[in-house]
Amino acid sequence: MTTTAQHRPTSALLITDVRLRDGSQVDVSIADGRIAAIGAGLPREPGVTLEDGAGALLLPGFVEGHTHLDKTNWGMRWYRNEVGPKLTDRIENERRWRAGSGHDAGAQSLALARAFLQAGTTRLRTHVDIDTDAGLRHLEGVLATRDTLRDVLDMQIVAFPQSGLLGRAGTDALLDCALSAGADVLGALDPALIDGDPVASLDVTFGLAERHHKPIDIHLHEPGEIGAFTLGLLLDRVAALGMQGQVVVSHAFCLGALPERERDALLERLADLRVALLTTAPSSTLVPPLKTCLEKGVTLFGGNDGIRDTWTPYGSPDMLERAMLIAMRYGLRRDDDLALAFDCVSSTAARACGFTDYGLHAGARADLVLVDADTLAHALVARPPRKLVVANGQTVARHGAAPESLN
User: Fold this and answer.
1) Of 337, 353, 369, at which residue does a domain stop?
2) Could you tell me which CDD domains the record lists for this protein (predicted)?
3) What does each C-alpha distance from 150 to 109, 116, 138, 275 come to in angstroms?
4) Mean pLDDT of 374-397
5) What's the distance, CA 74 to chain centroid?
């Protein structure tokens, strides 16, 4: 599935003298929000705006595969984090703080989404809390942000029960309303450890998804054997309902802790059912093995998770930074291995989320990033300012700053 930005008519653009990842020098022709051609020495047509790339490295627009725009404190005063160590501590603390402070999901999601654009992200999947206290208020704010930026940012919204599905009566009805109101994907959270009944939890989740014909993206923090049990139940339902290619398992920490034989059996099922994995590559938690996933044919992509919220002071809307952190977490040092980390926030993430018309080829949506870097590996490590960001054929950032029209 995909959400597609509305195509506002744009003037034709020719970007000259840029380098592809293989080092070849090319020009890029853009018309009506699409890449018309990529090649050396493209003709300079009358009336076409010229942009001198000056030898910069050309990259596709980045893809954020997992964030929480509605929660962020981006641009606000520093939040003093004194939350307890348990997942439930963070959930309850966040609910209290958002209710008491009047946190505005609309204004905050817009601020962070614009920061993502300026840093080169043109496709984004965000989870949004659906809560029996807040109702659909957070969703309404993020829907407004999506509408404001619809011409340049392709955004998918996940209706996410941050407190679980079964513990607070009425959550399933709110999720039902959220999917009808414009959410693209159904979220879920730890069916065993949060909901306490993985069978019932997954039954409700898959029932809602089937009713609305929506894909699923489930947070699975559950460790070891508990997580493996839940993952097995989930895969059974994917097979039974024919939902191959429509489910993402975010985090999947259990796959980093299981014995190799049990882990590999699950990876083979994931590959066979085309269930993708999302990792934020946390430094202190076991994660699914990147290269083993690739060898088994499992799609593994990347995202930030929360950014500057009550859960964490960390995170950044710069997906080159996230790619570098993924590379560091997996011990990637060779230039070709660093390219795997970049794929996690570009082509692989686009495929996993269902963002169509992605990439650097004729006919793709014109989402481009120019950086002054020798190679892709250099760009990940140095993370230079974005020289130019084009989204849906429109210039949305130059030298790290947005034009007045986006402010």
Assistant:
1) 353
2) Bact_CD
3) 14, 14, 18, 28
4) 97
5) 17
> If 0-12 CB within 10 Å is exposed, 13-18 middle and 19+ buried, where does residue 398 land?
middle
What tokens were used for 159?
């209706």
The DSSP secondary-structure symbol of 197 reads -
Given a contact cutoff of 8 angstroms between Cβ atoms, the answer to whether 63 and 121 are in contact is yes
Q: pLDDT at position 118, please?
A: 97
| Boundaries of domain holding 82 | 62-353
Specify the amino acid at residue 384: P
Assign 3-class secondary structure to 16-71: EEEECCCCCEEEEEEECCEEEEEECCCCCCCCCEEEEEEEEEEEECEEEEEECHHH
Collapse the DSSP code of 360 into the 3-class scheme (helix H, G, I; strand E, B; otherwise coil) and give the result. coil
Is pLDDT at 131 greater than 80 in this prediction?
yes
- Domain boundary (319, 336, 353) is at 353
Instruction: Convert the pLDDT of each residue in 76-121 to its tens digit.
Output: 999 999 989 888 999 889 888 888 888 999 999 999 999 999 999 9
- Sheet strands side by side (includes 49-60): 34-39, 25-31, 13-19, 49-60, 368-371, 386-391, 394-398
Say whether both 110 and 226 belong to one domain.
Answer: yes
Do 250 and 366 belong to one domain?
A: no
Average pLDDT of the chain to the nearest whole number: 95
**Least reliable range by pLDDT among 164-178, 241-255, 390-404:** 390-404
Please give the single-letter amino acid code of residue 186. L
